[in-house]
Design goal:
about 190 residues, alpha+beta, two-stranded antiparallel sheet, globular
């Protein structure tokens, strides 16, 4: 089997190991989500692990591991490692597959293995996903909540059924992140 090497990509002062990771950074930047890239490495029971992103302002700290969307392929090791990382650090996290995409409940699967463009698996709470990026309808804060229930991001009221995973702001950020070509030398 031929192994394809990812293209290292410079963006916003970071040198990303792949364009895919850089596109997720663009997505985070466009949504004003603070992130740290490859913040720290860990020695876990299944081996050494360097998670891709840490989002300090999402759910009191959230790990993101980015993997390519390869049809009919699922590497279980990233899910094992991020579970171990979440347990060790006390923060939540997930694996995202493919480029940022408009994320809907219908396009997500929590079956492991499973692959879907822009999908993610909730990996620290029973795999009861889908957990989606969403926006609080009252204040506009970005979060990651079950089913994209934006009303749960800040809990401004008792209505936790306010879905906002298809918010135009999320769609625009995903579209721009997928279109980024990284020819510019200066950050946004």
């Amino acid at each position: 089997m031929m192994k394809i090497k990812a293209i290292e990509t410079s963006y916003n002062g970071y040198k990303f190991r792949s364009r895919l990771e850089a596109r997720w950074a663009v997505f985070f930047d466009l949504l004003d989500i603070k992130y740290e890239y490859e913040k720290e490495g860990f020695n876990l029971p299944h081996g050494p692990y360097l998670p891709d992103f840490f989002l300090p302002d999402i759910r009191n700290g959230f790990w993101i591991e980015v993997k390519p969307n390869i049809s009919n392929h699922y590497d279980e090791l990233p899910s094992i490692l991020i579970r171990e990382l979440c347990k060790a650090t006390g923060f939540e996290g997930m694996v995202v597959r493919g480029e940022p995409a408009l994320m809907t409940v219908d396009s997500w699967s929590c079956e492991i293995p499973g692959v879907s463009d822009g999908s993610a698996y909730w990996l620290n709470g029973g795999d009861d996903g889908p957990y989606l990026f969403c926006i609080c309808p009252k204040c506009g804060k970005i979060g990651i909540e079950y089913g994209g229930r934006g009303s749960r991001v800040c809990r401004h009221n008792d209505d936790d059924k306010g879905y906002s995973n298809n918010h135009p702001r999320l769609e625009l950020a995903a579209c721009h992140a997928r279109a980024e070509r990284f020819e510019r030398r200066t950050p946004r």
